[in-house]
Structure formats: C-alpha cells, structure tokens
Amino acid sequence: MLIGASNLTISLRLIIELMQQYCGSPSEVLVAAGHGRSYGQGSRVLMRELPGIIQSGMWRQLHSAGTGAEPVTYAFLTDIGNDIPYQAAPEEILSWVSWCVEQLQRQGARIVMTNLPVASIEALSERRFNLLRGIMFSSCRLSRIEVIERARRVHQGLIQMAERRQLVLREVEADWMSFDGIHIAYWKRRAFYRQILQAFEQVTRCDDQPQGRMKSSTVTTPAGTLLSWRQRPNFAVRRIFGKIKRAPQPSGFLNDQTTVALY
User: Fold this and answer.
1) Which has fewest Cβ within 10 Å: 12, 84, 140, 207?
2) What is the mean pLDDT of each run of 10 residues along the chain (263 residues)?
C-alpha cells in the first residue's frame, strides 16, 4: 500500500523496488498518488482532476484483499502536506490521515510514515514562497507565516498520532529537499528512500504478533536489482477536461510480474 502525492508519483517504481527487499516479490501493489493529490478532497492539476485519497476506490480493494488468508500488510504514507496550501485546517488534515491509518491497521498493516519537512518549509524566503505558491498552488491565499504555522501543527499532530497508534514516523531533514522545500531532490531519491524504508525491517523485527504477509512469493528482491515497467499504470478514475476516464485495475505491470493498481 503506497499513499502520497507528487514525491510518491515521481519515485513510484523506485519505492516499490526498495520495499520489495522487505516485502518480497512479485507483489500486488495498491497505490493512491498523483501530483497535487489531496488526502481528503478533490484536487486538480492542469486539466486532470482526482478524488481525495480517502474517497478513492483503493479502500474497497484493500478490504476485499483483506478477506483472504494473506492480507496486504505493508503500507507507506508520505506527502502529508498538500492540503495546507489547499487551505484545509490542520485538524481536518490529521483526521484524514488518521482515517487512512485506521483502515490500514484494521487489515493488520505494518505502517511507515514520513512527517512534514518543516525545516525546509521554514527556510523558504518570502520571495521564493510567493513564487512557488503562484506556480504550484495558485488558489492559495495563505501567507508564508500561516503556512508555516499550520505545517508545525500538522507536524506535531503526526508525532502524537504515531505515538498513540504505534506507527513508525520518519522525519525529513532539509538536506534531502530540493529548492521548493517540499520535493525530494532528484539525485538524492534513492538514498533518501532507502533510509526511510529501512524502517520496514525494524517494524517486521519488532512485531511479536503473527500477522498475514503481503501476497507475494518468499523470494525478496536483491539489493541493487532494477525494476522496469512493462506497462505504466493509469488511474482507475480521473476527470480530464470535465470528462470521466476509467481504467480497469491493476493497470501497471513491472518486469518481475508485480502488478500495480492506481487509484
């Protein structure tokens, strides 16, 4: 289970490759991602519109997959922050993320989550902030100070959520980020996600209770093995120029027989 927005979209194949070192391969991967994706409300980038992550069809698929003897049990949540420039309240954002976590934990998921890159957001100058806001979130009317204040509240709320729900929460240092403060620097992606996803080894090792495993073979993907797409995934539902487009899932296939459903 992979949940996020642009960072996840850009590095999807890489993240699957690294996760398979802990989950095994081939795998059945369910993804809710997309540039500008919101956790709780519809979002639009150029002429493409997507539903909020909590409204996506991924959750029906998750619960369906979880009825068998081997439910999906590995989940990675990232890109929690787009909803701030969409002007959602911190409490609302946290409630959406909490809802996702609850659904995953009902299926016995082992969860790793990244926190907001608060330090890199705080480091943005007023000039750069205004430039990026105009390009990436043109409808946002929040000031730099307001965005930072909300980011801090969501950041602290995720820390409390992780403690309360016993999640692995990884901080994102400013050194990993690109000039915009919210995207992982392109040339640092592999090292960054390798470091973050090593937490799945910790989660698996520390989990004393028997749980179902991801539907995959027992053969893990060797370190350094490169996956490639046989077919890139298409969104299950999206709206283009006002017209709804649908694609049956799974719609993506990797060269190790991994399937990817994109919601």
Assistant:
1) 207
2) 97 96 90 97 93 97 67 87 95 98 94 97 96 92 97 98 96 96 96 96 59 37 70 97 96 96 98
What the chain holds in terms of domains, given with CATH numbers, is 2-262 (3.40.50.1110)
> What letters, b where the CB count within 10 A reaches 16 and e where it falls short, cover 22-43?
bbbbbbbbbbbbbbbbbbbbeb
User: DSSP assignment, residue 227?
Assistant: P
Strands 168-170 and 2-3: what pairing? unpaired
Q: In whole angstroms, what is the distance from residue 119 CA to residue 152 CA?
A: 10
Q: Which residues contact 54 (CB under 8 A, 6 or more apart)?
A: 39, 40, 96, 99, 100
Helix axes 199-206, 12-23, angle to 10 degrees: 30
